[in-house]
Amino acid sequence: MSRKLLLEHINVPGINTLEVYRQKGGYRAVEKALKTLTPEEVVEEVKKSGLRGRGGAGFPTGMKWSFLAKPEGVARYLVCNADESEPGTFKDRYLMTYIPHALIEGMIVSSFALGAKVSYIYVRGEMMPQIRILEKAIAEAKAAGWLGKNILGTGYDLELYVQPGGGAYICGEETALLESLEGKRGNPRIKPPFPAIAGLYGCPTVVNNVESIAAVVPIINDGGDEYAKIGIGRSTGTKLISASGNLVKPGVYEIELGLPVEEFIYSDEYCGGIANGKRLKATVAGGSSVPILPANLTLKYANGEPRLMSYESLAEGGFATGTMLGSGGFIAFDEDQCIVRNTWNFSRFYHHESCGQCSPCREGTGWMEKILHKIEHGHGTMDDVDLLWDVQRKIEGNTICPLGDAAAWPVASAIRHFRDEFEWHIKEPVKSQNQNYGLANYANPIEKAPVTEEK
Amino acid sequence: MLKVEEQTPVTFSSELLAKFDEIKSRYPEGKQKSALLPLLHLVQAEFLWVPTSAMDQVAAYLNIQPIEVYEVATFYTMYFLKPQGKYALEVCRTGPCCLVGAEKILSHLEDKLGVKEGEVTADGLFSFRGVECLAACGFGPVLQISPEYTFYENLTTDSVDKLIEDLKNKS
C-alpha cells in the first residue's frame, strides 16, 4: 500500500463534516502555521517540499508563491482554481465532494502564507452540488472560528468565498479565470504582467489548483522535507490520478509519484487491468491535452526501460516517444477503440472551447475538427492527413494561452503514432464505417535495447 | 441571438434581490461586476432561463451596461438564452464518456423523448443537449439536470428510462 496524504480518511463516515475532519487531525496545519510559523516560514516549507502545481503545468508551487509582489497598502489575493474541465480529469470534484475541509484548511494556511485577507475558490459552474458542499463547509469553519476576524486569536483575518463559473473550459487558464472572476468573458490575458504582479483587480494574485492547495496541509503538518522524501527525483509527494476509459476499476487514486505505469494499470490496488478482458491499445496519461501513446510506449520507453508515473518519466523521449503527467487524467483505450474517432472528438471539444481571441486557435481548431470528421466518416484523402499535420503545426506556439497547444498536441501525437490507422480509414472508406482497425502492432512489446559492452 | 420575441418581461422578487445583495457584498467596493456570473445563475434558477429583460435588470442592479451582461451570457455555455424543458438534461459527450457509451445515451434520449437536441417536449417537461466534459470521466456516461445540477453516473439506457419516468411522476 502506498502512502496516502490527501485521501487517507476518504472512507471515514462523516469526514465531510468539520467535527469528524477535526477528530481525524484536521485543522492542525492552521494551528501550527498561524501560531508557530511566520508567513515566510510557511512559504519556505512549501519550497522545500518540491510540490509542483497539480493543475497540469507542474510549476513549483513554492517558487510561484515567492514571486508574489508585496507592495505596501495593496491587497493580495489567493484564488483557488477549481475550474476542473480537462477531459479525463475529475480528482478535484472528488476531493471537494468528500473532503471539502481539506481544501478549506489548505486555503487558510496558503492565504496566511501569502498575506491574503480575502480569498476565492473559483469552481466551475456545472459543479453546483460541490459549490453547495463547499459553502456549507465554509459556514461550519467560520462558525468554529477557523475563518473570519482574528482567527485563533492571532490577529489574522480571512474571508473565503466560493465563486461559480459559467461553463467554459478556458477559465481553467489562470488569467481567463481572473477575467471571469471579475465578471467578464474568459479571454486569457497577455503575459507579462503575470498575476503575481497584476492579477485579480490588478492586485498581486496567486492562482493554485485545488489539489496543490490541499497538499499544503500535509506539508505543514509533517514538514516540507518529509514530503519531499516521498516520490522520485523532482516529482515529490503523492498525486491524485483520475483513471477513466476502458478499465476494470476507473476512479480517483492517490499514488506516490514514481509508481510504474504497468502496476497502476494492471494491479488490483489500482485500476485492475482493462475491462471485459480486452487488451490495452493506447493511453492518454495526463488529460486530453497531452500526447496519446500506443500501449507499448505507455508501459516502456523506446529503449525498453519501464515507464513510471512521474513528471520526468512520462515525459521521457520528448514528444517523439513520450507524453506528460499533466493534470493526472489517465484515459485508457481498449483494442476496440478508434483513434481517429477519439481525435475528432477531442478536436471538437477544443473547437467548442476556444475563446476565439487568437485566429490560429479559433480557425485552426475548426479546421482540425472538419478534416477529422471527414476522415472518420470515410470521405478523407491522403492529402488530408498532411493538411491536418500542417494545421496543428500552425496553431502550436502561436496563441496567447496554451489552449492552442493543448488542441494541437492530441492531433499531432495521434498522427505520429497512429498514422496507419488514419490511412486505413482513407483506403477503406466503407469498411472503416462498421469495423475497427483493432490493436494492430500498438501493443507489441518493446525489448530492452541490447547493451554493447565497451572494452 | 437576442430576438425580440424572447423579450419576456420578468420581475425580481425581494427574496431574489436579497440574495443579490449578499453576493455583491463578497467583492471589494467598486468591483461589484464580479457578481455577474453568480447573479445570472440565480436568475436562471428562478426562471429556468435568462430572458433579455432579466439581463437588463441585472445590468441596472450592478450599475454596468447591458452589453456587458449580454457578452457574458453569450460567452458561457451554462446560460440558457431561450426557454428549456423544466428538466434540462445535459449529457457529457467528450472522449472518456464516449469510450463507455455516451453517444448511445444521447441517441437513446432522442428516441425516448421524441425531440431533437435543443428542442423541448410538447408537455414542456424535458429538453436535452450534449455538453463537453463534466469532470466525472471515471463514472461515465454521466448527465446532469439543471437548475439543481443533480448528477447521474454510470448511465445505461435502462437507468435513463427509469430516470425519465421518475421525473414524469414527480411532476
TrEMBL record, chain A:
Domain NADH-ubiquinone oxidoreductase 51kDa subunit iron-sulphur binding: 340-385
Family annotation (Pfam families): Complex1_51K (PF01512), NADH_4Fe-4S (PF10589)
SUPFAM superfamilies noted in UniProt: Nqo1 FMN-binding domain-like, Nqo1 middle domain-like, Nqo1C-terminal domain-like
PROSITE patterns, sorted: COMPLEX1_51K_2
Cofactor requirements of the protein: [4Fe-4S] cluster; FMN
EC number: 7.1.1.-
Recorded GO MF terms: 4 iron, 4 sulfur cluster binding; FMN binding; metal ion binding; NAD binding; NADH dehydrogenase (ubiquinone) activity; quinone binding
Keywords carried by this UniProt record: 4Fe-4S, Flavoprotein, FMN, Iron, Iron-sulfur, Metal-binding, NAD, Quinone, Translocase
Catalytic activity: a quinone + NADH + 5 H(+)(in) = a quinol + NAD(+) + 4 H(+)(out)
Function, in words: NDH-1 shuttles electrons from NADH, via FMN and iron-sulfur (Fe-S) centers, to quinones in the respiratory chain.
Family: Belongs to the complex I 51 kDa subunit family.
Listed NCBIfam families: nuoF_fam, PRK13596.1
Protein name in the entry: NADH-quinone oxidoreductase subunit F
UniProtKB/TrEMBL annotation, chain B:
GO terms of molecular function: 2 iron, 2 sulfur cluster binding; metal ion binding; NADH dehydrogenase activity
Gene3D superfamilies on file: Glutaredoxin, NADH-quinone oxidoreductase subunit E
Residues the entry annotates as binding [2Fe-2S] cluster: C92, C97, C133, C137
InterPro entries reported for this sequence: NuoE-like, NuoE_dom, NuoE_N, Thioredoxin-like_sf
Cofactor remark: Binds 1 [2Fe-2S] cluster.
Key word Coiled coil present: no
One Pfam family linked to the record: 2Fe-2S_thioredx
Cofactor requirements of the protein: [2Fe-2S] cluster
Keywords, ordered alphabetically: 2Fe-2S, Iron, Iron-sulfur, Metal-binding
Family: Belongs to the complex I 24 kDa subunit family.
Name of the molecule in the record: NADH dehydrogenase subunit E
Naturally occurring in which organism (per UniProt): Pedobacter soli
